[in-house]
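LAB NOTEBOOK - FOLDING QUEUE
OPERATOR: T.R.
BATCH SIZE: 2
PURPOSE: Compare the predicted structure-token outputs for two unrelated chains run back to back under identical settings.
PRIORITY: normal
REVIEWER: second-year student, initials M.K.

ITEM 1
FIELD SEQUENCE / FIELD STRUCTURE:
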Amino acid sequence: MMNRKEFYEYVKDNVKAYLPKSYEEGEIKLQEVEKNNGLKLTGITIPNGDQRIVPTIYLDSLYQEYINGKDVDSCVGDVADMRIEAQGKAEFLDMGVPDIFDYEKMKDKLQMRICDKEWNTDRLEDKAFTEHGDFAAYYAVNLEENREGISSIPVTVSLMNEWGVSVEQIQADAMMADRNRGVVLMNMNEIIKSMIFGEEPENLLNEKLDIETMREPMFCLTNAQKMNGASLLLQEDIRKQIGECLGSDYFVLPSSIHEVLILPDNGLFEVPELNAMVKEVNETQVERQEQLSDKVQFCDGKTVVMENAERREARLEKEKAAEKAEVKGGIHGRLEKAKAEIKAKEVNKAPKDKAKNLAEVL
């Protein structure tokens, strides 16, 4: 049985035998691609003629199938099938490449993507990005969006320089484009029902909810396509809408890059428990490249300031302790000052009396 590297090389050396003649002259390359959260995948690119946009076929899952007993040549055939299937989309995208350097034509196609800043330092190195507390926002141009998925290219620093715009301008235009894609706040219970009965949950973003009458209130914030929708959290006016909708402060659970969960702060939740829950779900339910973070956030419903929930609690405890010390110190200080003043009067009084007595004697 071949090891991983040998398998990849075998695919590279033999895949042309399964492809049409138009692929014969292209230089096939293997490349390591860094995905979200440090995940690295191995892809293969197979050019077709002078095509400028060449799709990447990832080989990692195929290698796992090979390990599980699938014939290696069947795996190679699958790679060829995937490449042929991707050709139509690649040709469509290739037609739009000349416009990629025209910012005015691209700005409505921008999308903000969000990731954990600490988990993605290497991936962000060549990207145009902005920092938002525990998160970093980077940007992509969605060349095609449909039910099957999104075909996009990242906004690198070099592309931003070609456009001649600032990262702040890109952020503003990406936020506008994201709002135009639709913002959705859904009740999690209704989402579960929709999976069973097929009815689309109601968008609650502009509603005024009576949280106290709701059993286990939990909500999901995403976009209409339910793809890369977690970044909507970074828009201040959307956070404000959520606060007005709930009528309270709220916790934000970073569920995945596609959505976040919203929990009203009704006094029932402890931050350590929420953090533990997010970590467990990440480890057991969410694919690594789709994990957003394990850091629960707290959002003030009125000021819409969002901060790390754990650090917020530590800060409040510190401020509370300082306030107690100040009150205690203030009372103690006033007592000591009063004592000192009384003592000073007595000291000042004694010499005067003695001086008076001496004068009388003389």
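ITEM 2
FIELD SEQUENCE / FIELD STRUCTURE:
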Amino acid sequence: MTLARLDVVLLGLLSTGDRTGYDVWKWLEAHGPWVGYSARTSQIYRQLGKFVEWDWAQPILDQRDSGPDAKLYRITAEGRRRLDEWIDSPYVPSRRPLDPDFQVRLRFAGSTSPEKALELVRIELEYRKRAEETFDRSFDPVLVPADASAEDLVWQKEWHLIQQDRGHYMVSNLIAWLEATERRLQAQIQSQSK
């Protein structure tokens, strides 16, 4: 099942406890950059309202002694079912190496078990290795003006290589992290089975 990124974040957070829209916003402000996602408070509250309409969440009045009462949102059985359906859906990596979909999936689906996290890491790792092996690093003259001087052509080729190196180093680091994470998760699973 396809859920929007905000849906996943909201359902994932609600699955661990009741939250206000402000609580969600605070979490995204602190952790959103690390999962590659952010949202405005208006988006959060609008989506929580839709969750109530769809029976994915129910509002609960949180009476407070100081200040105005707050509205908490609690995940429903239907909301939990939707989240579980997404967690169990096949993961297909994005062509972009640092796409937020992997980060969001790893954060919320991977947290369900070391086995699920390992499955996601292995899928991403296999995809990244295959993409890196088949990446065409040849010079692409499309962005070079037709009337470029010999000197400009030398510069454009060098600039192309610099850009290619940037992508290569980013993906190489990602692959190294995925390999290290795979080993850590395997060790975690082995220690739990003893």
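REVIEWER COMMENT (ITEM 2): The chain has seven helices and two strands.
FOLLOW-UP: none requested
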